[in-house]
Every structure is written in structure tokens, then in C-alpha cells.
Design a protein that fits this description.
4 strands; globular; 130 residues; alpha/beta; Rossmann fold
């Protein structure tokens, strides 16, 4: 099985592994599971990392180049954003309008992978891993 990680899983693997449940850890370490990390997630995190709040703190939890390094060292597949991804309509739309979530789901749809998320708005989607 191929499994595309939602952005929050990348952050948790790199910076807060305690957030990952034992079941999720088993999935992530299963040799029969190919873990896929999207360029879309790296881009989302770069935008957050470069945004600074009024207090002077970054809104992103971790630098995107650190996450890329984590994914590369783990041997995960890095999925680029392709023109096909950019123009494909999501077969089962999501109720909210987060463009990053929609692009990740479109990538899962086009690539035939399952989507690992804990996002309440996405866990019931047909592409989400249960």
C-alpha cells in the first residue's frame, strides 16, 4: 500500500513524535507500506515558516528544509506537484476550502494512494486511510 501523509504527520514525525499513536507508528514502519510525502506539504510549511506573528514568532512549527531532510533520510517518496494534479477536479469534494487539503487529496486520487490524516474534516473522505 502507498500512503500519502497529511502535513501534520510530517511535523509530528520531525518534531513531536509523541503525537503519533502506536497504531500510526506501526503503519509508518510497516515494510509493506510506501510512505509518500507531498511537495504541497513542504510548500504549505514553507509559507507558514516564513510568516511571522505580531509577537515575532514564526507561525510554522519547523523549517521546511528540515522536514525535507527527515523525509529523504527516511527513504520516503517525494511526490511533486504535476500539471495533472493542478488541473484535476476532486471526485468527492471536501466541505471546507483549504487549497492544501484539496491538492493533497487530488494527488492521492490521481496517484492511487491512501491519505493518512487526523484532520476531522478529512477523516471521513473516501481517500482517507482508516
Amino acid at each position: 500500500m502507498r500512503l500519502l501523509l497529511d502535513t501534520h504527520f510530517l511535523v509530528w514525525v520531525a518534531a513531536d513524535v509523541r503525537r503519533i499513536t502506536p497504531h500510526e507508528r506501526a503503519i509508518l514502519s510497516d515494510e509493506d507500506v510506501e510512505i509518500v510525502c507531498s511537495t504541497v506539504s513542504l510548500w504549505e510549511l514553507r509559507l507558514k515558516w516564513q510568516t511571522v506573528s505580531l509577537s515575532g514568532e514564526r507561525k510554522g512549527p519547523i523549517a521546511p528544509d528540515v522536514l525535507l531532510g527527515v523525509a529523504q533520510r527516511a527513504g520516503w517518496t517525494i511526490l511533486p506537484l504535476t500539471p495533472e494534479h493542478a488541473v484535476t477536479t476532486l471526485e468527492v469534494p471536501v466541505a471546507h476550502k483549504d487549497p492544501f487539503d484539496e491538492l493533497l487529496l487530488v494527488q492521492a486520487q490521481v496517484e492511487g494512494v491512501r491519505f493518512l490524516t487526523r484532520d476531522e474534516a478529512l477523516v471521513g473522505h473516501p481517500l482517507a486511510y482508516r
